[in-house]
Amino acid sequence: MAVDDRPLRLAYLSYRSKPTVGGQGIYTRHLTKALVDLGHTIEVFSGQPYPVLDERIALTELPSLDIFNDQYPGRFPAYWEIKSMADILEIAQFSTGTFPEPLAFSYRAYRALKDRTADFDLVHDNQCLGYGILAIDRILPTLITLHHPITVDRRLEVAAAPNWRKRLSISRWYSFVKMQGRVAQRMPRIVVVSDNSIDDIHADMNVDRDRMRLVHVGVDPDLFRPLPGVERIPGRLITTASADVELKGLRFLLEAMAKIKTEQAVSLTVIGKAKKGGKAAELIDSLDLAGDIEFVSGVTDERIVELYAQSELAVVPSLYEGFSLPAVEAMATATPLVATSGGALPEVTGVDGETVLRCEPGDTGSLVDALRRGLSDPVLRARIGGAGRERVSRLYTWRQTAQNTVDQYREVLAMRQTETPGPRNLNTSTDPAGT
Fold this sequence. Notes:
Layout: E1 9-14, H1 23-37, E2 41-46, E3 58-61, H2 85-95, H3 101-113, E4 122-126, H4 132-139, E5 142-146, H5 151-160, H6 164-173, H7 176-186, E6 190-192, H8 195-205, E7 212-214, E8 236-240, H9 250-261, E9 267-271, H10 279-286, E10 293-296, H11 301-309, E11 313-316, H12 325-332, E12 337-340, H13 345-349, E13 357-359, H14 364-375, H15 378-395, H16 398-418, H17 423-426
Parallel strand pairs: 1-2, 1-4, 2-3, 4-5, 5-6, 6-7, 8-9, 8-11, 9-10, 11-12, 12-13
Helix pairs in contact: 1-16, 2-3, 3-4, 5-6, 9-10, 9-14, 12-15
């Protein structure tokens, strides 16, 4: 296909696409819709949990063994479930304590695409980075989105581990990160969502800067908008967090709430699932906060917008963010935002006291101060909320994300057309890893 302005036929890969909570699923849902709105054709290939997609987008299911499903996470598959080499690979990696989905999914995606090269102009991989992606790039031009290096998650979880056995277990679980780094180093173009992530990917994964391009993530400002008819509940906070993921910093928000609670009534809505018996649940009980916290999951975007409209402050207490969709969604609703300076958050949220109330990551006292500033000053809340919406509407929309992503698609196609024939084009090995 000549590189011009004709609509593209895209194969979009997402190894898991949780539709309501989780950046990969949200990115998949909204970016693919925005791309279709621009006139392109998309087929999504995904493992469980499957995405929620626009009705114009085809979904090809590439089912995993679903080892980490919500009902029985970490289950061991029965022998009759093993039906392919990818299944064997998945269960073998799981048996050694490694997260197996990215590698196994990349093999499934390669098998699904190897006989369909005439159906697509380009493949877009959403942070799988399994070895099979290298094989796909040999048969179809391929672009990768890398939101942030998972090395950061590993580093923070290892640091928080209570003993050497747990540290060893976490390191083994995250050993797939080495594979992702090797794949990223060999891909011709990687889309990254923030300048901060570009710096971290270069430092942690040794990926050349000239292979990476910045394309910000977006929000739908017509969906995530102020609801003037909904009254804000005094003292109500809202956050999006995986309950026991150290990276998201929920424990620091819970500790800050306990201190604020001694001064005034305060409550918290958590967009996410509570984990029975987990660290967050134990901390909630020990701080006597059970009656002040509500976990909400599996609800529509419209309901989430209502929850923002009921809240006086939105909080992103993360230790690190590669971008932060919850931050821009909160800002789009004109809900004043309290956010840490972790990772890309300063880059995304703007200036302290103008579009955000900033605090230090992992510092309960700093978070308490920021919450006090917001809860005590309605004029400040109104000003920051309005300025935050203006910033997001100007800089971060899914249409802008899609347009900038298409620019990268066309650059990849142009690179492939001018490429000197070599191993990528001539290698007919059936080994997806190409090793």
